[in-house]
């Protein structure tokens, strides 16, 4: 086994190397493999995916896929728990430093207001947004997550948008691809005319509104009844940079979504396949793409049918084989009998 150390196989059980995948799959199918077959892939022994057969040490038997999945999920849970503890520690530290900050005399530049202000309640949020709208003279950048925009959401900010348009302020909005199917958004953009540019992505960050690159608003809780008003130049500049990079990656609303290059699989299903390959649950995928869990599962069912997968485990294998488990890219069309390349769903 010389020359095949762990440095040549820097991966975990969540993403095997190609040679390891072949040997482990063969071991699962046949129940065991000769020890010599595993010499080029010491990662399988190091990751405890193969272990010696107690009846014959010249053979290796596989750890069951179910046990491997349980181990991976346990590790993921431990990582999430550790992250939660780190977040809790960071919040406690922020509160401690904030308490110290009350004892420091504010600088002269703070006369315009605090760099970070918590807005508690929809009324305070609306008032702060109206104030920022009235002061805005050049540009508004927004990120609107979720799926199809409801009429009530669009109407809520319409008076501000019309006021901005009347003063010649330019607006750029980022949405998820799902928002393309909402008639309310199309009516809103038609009303606003060339004052607004809109682009879409598979998924975007949480809601963000930036006025004149000097003040930003972001949610402060999950139900958006609290918000943060940010005026610290470094924070606002960072958020502008995030927006600009997403904007360059996004597709204009007037342009069609790119074809997947795989017959029978839509652009949205390609996005779902990539998130499935990352190990995300249906509810998480639905939230990130701005669709319902029911719609997400319908797309997963179509993926399974198109790729000929009889189970979720097999679907994961087929997704990898079709090249759908990584960044979206052009691929050689995969012919599926009786199906045509669909339009964006």
Describe the structure.
By secondary structure, this protein is of the alpha+beta class. 45% of the residues lie in helices and 15% in strands. It is built from 12 helices and 11 strands. It has helices at residues 18-30, 43-46, 65-101, 122-135, 151-156, 158-166, 183-192, 233-249, 267-277, 282-289, 293-307, 312-321; strands at residues 33-34, 50-53, 56-62, 116-120, 139-144, 170-176, 196-201, 208-211, 215-219, 226-230, 251-252. The strands form 2 sheets. It has an 8-stranded mixed β-sheet with strand order 4-10-9-8-5-6-7-11, with helices on both faces. The protein has a 3-stranded antiparallel β-sheet with strand order 1-3-2. Helix 7 (183-192) links the parallel strand 6 (170-176) and strand 7 (196-201). Helix 9 (267-277) crosses helix 11 (293-307) and helix 10 (282-289) packs across helix 11 (293-307). It is elongated, with a radius of gyration of 26 Å. It starts with 17 loop residues before the first helix and ends in a 24-residue tail after the last helix. The model is unreliable at 1-6, 107-111 and 329-345 (pLDDT under 50).
